[in-house]
Design a protein that fits this description.
By secondary structure, the protein is α+β, with helices and mostly antiparallel strands. It is about 40% helix and about 20% strand. It has a five-stranded mixed β-sheet with strand order 3-2-1-4-5.
């Protein structure tokens, strides 16, 4: 099942992250150990529509649509434009700079948000958006 939403072109990154996590058991366990959180991403596109995806690096090491796995609380929610998310996962933007400029908003544990960058880097190396 694809996580991509055609109204959000950069959402293909969630499929790349999911395939990266599911293709290598050792890497998935390592990502869960390092991440130790459930990350939600709420993206807003140019039409003003919002969509959410989550990356569970607390228990299962899976990616899905929505703000989190059923019955689980999200540790960190990252809110940004679809365009900025595309730049972030392609390596053309830096999360800290987006945060400092107000383009990336973080709800929840800001320190855990910093643990997300290595996972996004895996999406960069998997394919170019």
């Amino acid at each position: 099942m694809s996580l991509k939403n055609n109204a959000f072109p950069s959402s293909t990154a969630f499929d790349l992250i999911n395939s990266s996590l599911s293709s290598d058991e050792a890497e998935r366990k390592d990502a869960v150990k390092k991440g130790n959180a459930i990350f939600a991403f709420t993206l807003k596109n140019k039409e003003g529509l919002s969509e959410s995806w989550y990356i569970d690096l607390k228990e299962q090491g899976v990616v899905g649509k929505g703000t989190g796995p059923d019955g689980k609380k999200t540790d960190v929610t990252l809110l940004l434009s679809e365009d900025d998310f595309g730049k972030l996962v392609s390596g053309k933007a830096n999360a800290q700079k987006l945060f400092m400029s107000g383009k990336l908003k973080v709800k929840g544990d800001v320190m855990k948000a910093t643990k997300m960058e290595p996972v996004l880097k895996k999406a960069q190396t998997s394919a170019k958006l």
